[in-house]
Design a protein that fits this description.
Strand order of the largest sheet: 3-2-1-4-5-6-7-8
Structural class: alpha/beta
CATH superfamily: NAD(P)-binding Rossmann-like Domain
Strand content: 5-15%
Bound molecules: NADP nicotinamide-adenine-dinucleotide phosphate
CATH class: Alpha Beta
Number of helices: 7
Shape: globular
Mean pLDDT: 93
Number of strands: 8
Order of helices and strands: HEHEHEHEHEHEHEE
CATH architecture: 3-Layer(aba) Sandwich
Length: 249
């Protein structure tokens, strides 16, 4: 069965007996926007949080209200566009005996350059952040999930990189998210089903990235991500979701 068929075959939401207080969730780009709210909601669900940010100080400032809420938060410096930074973060966590059970590949940037004016450097920076960053984080943390026979990975993708919707986003961003979707399928195919790997379209969310186009609250956007991060053990893998509903790629 193909990964996408697997995703359709199983319902996404079923009552789960998973003790989320035993799980650690790492969220990239978690110092603001959807990432920060995803970290908060996962913390409120009981998970220990690794709040990852490329600027440590911004990460620590963002963590303060979560800590004040009583959530268990560790802040890590992680620039997803830098493979060495990903490896360094993974090494520090391993040294502290922190196993990442839930990975949310959220960090992302937007670019509006028209395709004929696109320079390699711009393309690579967007691609390194939105696509390769997710690959490097997956390579760093999925093996531990497989070893522990449990894991969840969520790729925060975008309707703008969706072929069935005509790839409507600006070129570089749309291509990077379409590639992220392809990466989701390939990772799910290569990983046992105990690790659920899915991509989500969070909708138009009121963040700095969406600017004036944002419609949904950051809480609603994050709920759509968290839904896949907290999938039950019979949940889908290798799927693409528009919020909580399956989406065409
Ligand atoms: N908002 C929407 O409507 C929407 C729709 C579809 C998909 N998305 C996706 O949702 C995700 C979150 O976006 P958002 O809307 O919450 O935007 P945002 O408020 O601009 O947040 C983006 C986050 O990514 C971080 N980031 C950027 N480059 C990074 C890097 N190299 N390493 C680590 N972190 C990095 C930013 O950190 P700094 O503060 O250091 O810049 C920030 O924390 C993105 O992947 C985006 O493509 C958003």
């Amino acid at each position: 069965m193909t990964a996408s068929k697997k995703a359709k075959a199983k319902p996404a939401a079923k009552a789960s007996r998973i003790d989320w207080t035993t799980k650690t969730a790492l969220v990239t780009g978690a110092n603001r926007g959807i990432g920060l709210e995803t970290a908060r909601q996962l913390g409120q669900a009981g998970c220990k949080i690794v709040l990852a940010a490329r600027d440590l100080q911004l990460g620590e400032e963002a963590a303060q209200p979560l800590v004040a809420e009583g959530l268990r938060v560790r802040v890590e410096k992680l620039d997803v566009s830098d493979e060495q930074s990903v490896k360094d973060c993974a090494r520090r966590l391993k040294k502290s005996r922190v196993g990442v059970d839930i990975l949310v590949n959220n960090a992302g940037i937007y670019d509006r350059t028209p395709i004929m004016e696109l320079e390699t450097e711009t393309f690579m920076q967007v691609f390194r952040t939105n696509t390769l960053g997710a690959l490097w984080c997956s390579q760093a943390f999925i093996p531990g999930m497989v070893e522990r026979q449990w894991g969840r990975v969520v790729m925060v993708s975008s309707g703008l990189g969706t072929f069935s919707r005509g790839m409507l986003g600006h070129p570089c961003y749309a291509i990077s998210k379409a590639a992220l979707n392809a990466l989701t399928i390939k990772l799910a195919q290569a990983t046992p089903d105990v690790v659920k790997i899915n991509a989500v379209r969070p909708g138009w969310v009121k963040t700095r990235l969406a600017g004036a186009l944002g419609k949904d609250s950051v809480e609603t956007g994050a709920e759509r991500v968290v839904h896949l991060a907290l999938l039950p053990d019979d949940g889908p893998s290798g799927g693409y979701f528009r919020g909580k509903r399956p989406s065409r790629w």
